[in-house]
Automatic annotation (TrEMBL), chains A, B:
Pfam family, one: MTTB
GO biological process, any: methylation
Stretch forming the signal peptide: none
Name of the protein this chain belongs to: Methyltransferase
Keyword presence, Methyltransferase: yes
Record region (Disordered): 1-27
């Protein structure tokens, strides 16, 4: 009676039938979770609150404006109607911002090299992926941090390529073994694109490297026209230095990339309490204001160019001023921003899934889960940094990335939500079960039909009983993730370039990865 | 430029001021999180969907009904207007259910022995606590499961007593070292109540043990009148055996406890795919139907008696039929139920925070976090099993309980949400910072004021940089939790009974814990 949680074991007949059912692969549209599921059931802000945030952002843009625009940016922005003040700050009349919002691209496709991985960003469609600029790799066996390399980056891309719940691969780390920044930028593209056919994100260091980067992308795509038709790389553009200053060089990078046909992630990464206001609402106001300025900028350079509204405010631990990406405050910031994207109807992205924990331990699990699930439920189109990120973005971990795929699978199941229709309400099933039926649902047709379409099963997370677990030798989660990593990296890379393309790239550029 | 996540280190002046500010204790109403924060920003069901679930539950009650009511229950229920069929099932006319909903107790106070821990259950006020009937303790150092004892239970209560974010202590485990069920029930009360002054939940095994239990509670309270004035123990009453059968003995326990003045948790613990329909909506329909039957029952015995609507549907891993409390489906079930509680305006509770993981590892972190944060955001009044639960409820872990307090702290921060007002919007702060100001927010008055009221700092979760972490000897999360456990248990128990009361209890009953 007080054992309310008894484990019900399946009758062998039902189990055999279920096992057979599970052996057959599911059609893609029947999979329990997939990229682009629609969120939006979680709304931390009310309509009037969103309106106040919008009005405050307009005030900030109109009255405070942004400093440090490059000369070319000043031309573009004042040409569109922005005002250059005596203090060299650019201020944005409300009407200019509202007009831009009305005309901006509201339905962006981020292409994969393989069209199966295309992402449609609109409404509350949710996608999870990596991102960041970690400088360390987490060595879980050695419990230590070391500098990350181009091989680590390539391996991360290869791992992502086979993980169902990682939908895109923005480069999560910088190649610390390539001291020359031009070579680093070019090898970053190569390491990512040769590792995965999913959409890729990079971040050019200097305007002077853009032409070479585009040249490499044309080679990979098989021509500039093919690249422009389906640009499979976007640029993470830190176009502002919060609070309210344009990042002069990054703006020039952005202008060149717009010209080159690359989608732009307008990334505003303030840190609440340090480079953004400490209150969550204020950090959102500033991020929104900065991204609105960026949106005006992009549309002034080229109307309708695809630009993702990248409000990425982070959180400070105010005791030390250090960043804390694993906090509840971070989850709220990201979800609040996602709601503002919906308020504007503009595709947006923000950061979630960051752990402050140094290792993939219990702390990492809860930190990554809270912000990832809230970001998904809030309907964030692009959830960046969703897996593998430790030490508040300073470290990346392959094992954690693999476990993150399981974590995000569960988050996606939550995003999918609860279907309510005649069959799922189950009145007839309950009737058939209780009135003259078997008194349980184990072997019912409904249960058999739903087990694959409604339930997601983890790959590495352990659901055995204590007894089974003991009999299996008490498998360690991290050791299993390491084994999976070695298995993936031991297989032939699926995304490699064909030999001619690879040779052409290697003739044109110094590629650090061995051929 | 591509280092968007630079750690901003505080200037020493600002840091010193912040440290000084943090030294002063905060008034309780200024604490960043507390019991009873209001959720409700997450709504997995639409209004029409909730209406359909309600109508389906009414259909189930009217057409299928419940079997196995005790004779006394048949008298109570038919007296209230329910119909006993030739098949001995009790069916509930729609009007009876609607009338009960209109008249039932909508504002329940669950008392603590210390009034500071009283919980007001109404609206979307959220409380987290323990619960369950684990049979194992998780020995983290030995990586093994062992049978749990009354000492383990008492220690869990003592640990909960000092954890800010554990608001109540329903007994999470059964005392496997007390073979006699009467002695077990009585020692469960003693072990919990002598360990904490927070509200306690127990679960009587047999009707024959209730009188002794109440007698002990009268002794603890200082008299029956004092007990009835502030009953600080509620009974977790598994009054149904899903699908749609009353648990005959448990119903008699319930009747006796209503008589004795004890609040009732009407607990329906079906398992989707096994003892409840596999679709999430169907499992909710059945749980709601069963709890509505329970609510009619309680109000037939004693109108307005405090009864918590305990829709606790669990999830099966349909590959094996075994329970999976750590799944995304579980989080959705619990959140959907929370919304139905709000639909009725009846205080409710459900299960969240369950890990399938055997140890407090990364899997445990994400499993506990996803359901706990979704339960809180959905405004669930009583979040049971929120901390310490492993192996799908079979194991309890003191270290995990302690870490769960940190996890729930972050979840509560998310429940609290985003305040939007003139000051938090921060337009003036941004202006002062950007126009002739320092260009950062580290030392601003607003940052100093908000750092304690708006931000919650974890107790054990590690936010150091990789360098600091290395210098500190790479502290292990679990080892730190064990150290904290030993510290708590090494201190004098705050909740112990006064010597006379203790002696009186020990004269009247065989108490297993040493005096």
């Amino acid at each position: 009676m007080n054992e309310h949680a008894k484990t019900v074991t399946a009758r062998s007949g039902g189990r055999a039938a279920r096992r057979a059912a599970r052996a057959a692969p599911l059609a893609d549209h029947l999979r329990p979770v997939r990229a682009g599921l629609q969120g939006g059931t979680y709304n931390p802000l009310t309509e009037p609150q969103m309106h106040r945030i919008h009005q405050a952002a307009l005030d900030v843009l109109e009255q405070i404006g942004l400093a440090d625009a490059p000369e070319s940016g000043i031309r573009h922005l004042t040409g569109a109607g922005a005002i250059l003040g005596d203090d060299r700050r650019i201020r944005f009349p409300r009407a200019l911002v509202e007009d831009t919002l009305a005309r901006a691209n509201r339905q962006i496709t981020l292409f994969g090299r393989d069209p199966a991985h295309d992402m449609e960003l609109s409404g509350t469609r949710v996608h999870y992926g990596t991102a960041g600029a970690a400088v360390h790799m987490v060595d879980v066996a050695g419990r230590r941090y070391r500098e990350c390399t181009v091989q680590d980056l390539h391996d991360a891309a290869r791992i992502c390529d086979v993980l169902d719940n990682i939908h895109f691969v923005q480069r999560p780390m910088v190649c610390r073994d390539i001291p020359d920044n031009r070579e680093m930028d070019l090898n970053t593209i190569y390491a990512c694109a040769s590792g995965t056919t999913k959409h890729i994100g990079v971040s050019f260091t200097e305007p002077a490297f853009v032409d070479d980067g585009l040249k490499m992308l044309h080679l990979i795509a098989g021509g500039e026209d093919k690249w422009r038709e389906r640009p499979f790389v976007s640029n993470s553009n830190c176009f502002v230095v919060p609070p309210m200053k344009f990042a002069t060089e990054a703006c020039i990078v952005m202008e060149k990339l717009i010209e080159g046909g690359m989608p732009i992630l307008l990334l505003s990464a303030g840190q609440a309490g340090a480079t953004a206001p400490a209150p969550i609402a204020g950090a959102i106001v500033q991020a929104v204001a900065e991204c609105l300025a960026g949106l005006v900028y992009v549309n002034a350079v080229k109307p309708n160019h695809p630009a993702i509204f990248g409000t990425w405010p982070f959180v400070s631990d105010l005791r030390t001023g250090a960043m804390s990406g694993g906090s509840g405050e971070q989850a709220l910031l990201t979800a609040g921003c996602a709601q503002m994207h919906r308020y504007y109807g503009i595709p947006g992205g923000a950061a979630a899934g960051i752990a402050d924990a140094k290792l993939p331990d219990m702390q990492a699990g809860w930190e990554q889960a809270i912000s990832n699930v809230m970001a998904g439920l809030s309907g964030l189109n692009m959830i960046y940094e969703a897996a593998g990120m430790h030490a508040s973005l300073l470290g990346f971990c392959h094992e954690s990335l693999i476990l993150g795929d399981d974590l995000i699978g569960q988050a996606l199941r939550c995003v999918r939500g609860i279907e309510v229709d005649e069959d799922s309400l189950s009145v007839e099933t309950i009737r058939a079960t209780c009135l003259g039926g078997p008194g349980h649902f184990l072997g019912s047709d409904q249960t058999l039909a739903r087990m694959q379409t409604d339930y997601i099963y983890p790959t590495l997370a352990d659901r055995t009983s204590p007894k089974e677990w003991d009999e299996k030798g008490k498998p360690d989660l991290i050791e299993r993730a390491t084994a999976r990593k070695e298995q993936i990296l031991g297989e032939r890379a699926r995304a490699r370039f064909d030999p001619e393309t690879d040779a052409a790239i290697r003739r044109a550029f110094r590629i650090h990865l061995p051929g």
